[in-house]
Structure to design on (151 residues):
């Protein structure tokens, strides 16, 4: 299957191009979700991000992603003065950011469904590993990072 055919297949099967939903591109929807929960400054966003994202905790990467989101009109920022310490830039999600987050969440739901179909079939085909097969192993590995969705 050629590269363009693979991309077409991935888009039609999963609802979004796979490249947009790869873990390395997962930072932006995570930041949009955190900002939907509440406006915040970059350092606090980086701290709140850790349980959701397997990144290396690079605050510089968070600030680069925030600047990119701001350039695209998905977030806006404003300076907030502090009685202790320097002024901080507070980030807020925009209406365009909310729409983008909704679309990304739909795409991620398709990926989640496809991954679980794969893991279930893999477990049946291989007789893999104990309670829950490979899915159980994944769930145990990510215990505490539950999305609240029953499996």
């Amino acid at each position: 299957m050629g590269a363009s055919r693979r991309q077409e297949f991935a888009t039609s099967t999963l609802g979004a191009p796979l490249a947009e939903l790869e873990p390395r591109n997962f930072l932006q929807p995570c930041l949009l979700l955190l900002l939907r929960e509440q406006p915040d400054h970059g350092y606090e966003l980086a701290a709140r991000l850790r349980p959701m994202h397997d990144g290396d905790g690079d605050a510089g990467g968070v600030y680069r992603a925030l600047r990119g989101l701001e350039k695209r009109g998905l977030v806006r920022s404003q300076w907030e003065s502090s009685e202790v310490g320097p002024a901080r830039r507070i980030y807020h999600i925009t209406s365009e950011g909310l729409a983008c987050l909704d679309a990304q969440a739909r795409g991620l739901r398709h990926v989640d469904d496809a991954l679980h179909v794969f893991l279930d079939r893999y477990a049946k085909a291989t007789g893999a590993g104990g309670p829950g097969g490979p899915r159980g192993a994944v769930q145990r590995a990510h215990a505490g990072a539950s999305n609240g969705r029953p499996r």
